Amino acid sequence: MDTRAHPASWPLAAALDDLESRIEDDVERELWRQWRDFARGACKQEVFVPRRPRPRPSEREWPRVPINAALEDFEAMALQAMGFCSQALAEASGKILNVRCNYGSPIMPMLFGVELFRMPEATDTLPACHPLPGGAEALRRLLDAGEPSLDQPYMNRVWEMGRRFKAIQARYPKIGRHVHLYHPDFQGPLDILEMVVGSALFMLLMDEPELVHQALELITRTYIRAMRRWQTIQPAREDGLTTHWGLVHPGAIMLRDDSAMNLSPAMFAEFVQPYDQRLLAEFGGGAIHACGRVEHFVPFLPEMPGLTAFNMSQPRLNDMATVWRNTVERGLLVIDADGQAVHDALAAGQRLHGRVHVGYPNAALALKLSRS
Q1: Correct CATH for 96-370 of 3.40.50.720, 3.40.50.300, 3.40.1390.30, 3.20.20.210
Q2: Is the separation of the CB atoms in 124 and 148 below 8 Å?
Q3: What is the enclosing helix (H) or strand (E) of 312?
Q4: How far is Cα 200 from Cα 133, in angstroms, rounded to an integer?
């Protein structure tokens, strides 16, 4: 069977009916309780490894919706997103059920005039964008234009998809209670700027630092407006927690600092930390994600008020002793950690203080050692 069948082969209503019938109130409430306790520092084990008590597979095979189809059709995107929730139930995952308006990392850069680049169908990958040509002159034109409208066509799809998810939650009681809608991929200020001007950014950091600061200031103000608009669709939770990728952390925002792998510690302190800090303060704190090498800037993280959690990729590229020392040893949560890295830390005698989450099946090694 072609699992990438066109979404019309299984109407969205049938999929939502199926998902609604498989969600168990008591199971989801208990899973949320466990995540809430972890997020608030009340986990009693060295490693937090949540999991539903039993799988709840569908009696039908959900179609796999290609990303490009979801970008073009609201119902296809809803079916794709709810399919991830269906998979979590089928696998007895420990992740919270959640969905987002999945339009990729170019959402914010599109406000500044970049051109969207859709990936070939065969890659089935979220879109990228072509940066603005012109380097410093492009930045000056961007600054002359001032704050962009939040009603740019690509962004309007985000707002509309958010409203459609809210309508689904209103129609299906258990989906409304347990499938959380989290904020779109708005990235972080420096990541946005890199997508807007491309690799020219790294010369501009050296040659035109004041111009870069002016652009980051504009981007940060625009980011605040975009998040505020988003919160008119999905208000922040009253308990101060939020979900992202099925994870839970205190604070309303998940920033991305992937570009920081290419910066010196001094450049992180100058061009990343102040703008991230403004966003954390504006939205009641939150988490940071970063890919690649992080050990050179991770010492700054525990010094950032409101930062509650860190999510990283590629631990093999890092001195993890430095990462643990500047996260769990300083009160930060590490969410969706690599099981092998956690196993190695425990084997070396590293205390994790109940501040590290590892998900199944990634958790097998870490879980075994943490209970020995």
Answers
A1: 3.20.20.210
A2: no
A3: strand 307-312
A4: 9
Greatest CA separation for the chain: 62
Residues in the chain, how many? 372
CB atoms within 10 A of CB 333: 28
Nearest-angstrom CA–CA distance, 173 and 20: 8
Amino acid at 176: G
Q: Are 135 and 200 in contact (CB under 8 A)?
A: yes
Closest by Cα among 307, 291, 283 to 256: 291
- The reported pTM is 0.94
Q: Tokens 């208990």 belong to which residue?
A: 30
Count the neighbouring beta carbons within 10 Å of the beta carbon of residue 8.
Answer: 12
pLDDT tens digits for 93-113? 999 999 999 999 999 999 999
Cα distances from 57 to residues 18, 19, 22, 87, 128, in angstroms, run 10, 10, 8, 8, 34
**3-class DSSP state of 116:** strand
At residue 370, does pLDDT exceed 80?
no
Q: How far apart are the first and last CA of the chain?
A: 44
User: Rounded to the nearest 5°, which phi and psi values hold at 133?
Assistant: -75, 155
Q: Tens digit of pLDDT for each residue in 278-287?
A: 999 999 999 9
Calculate the alpha carbon distances from 306 to 67, 219, 233, 238, 246 in Å: 34, 20, 24, 16, 21
pLDDT in tens, 152-175: 999 999 999 999 999 999 999 999
Domain ranges of the chain: 96-370
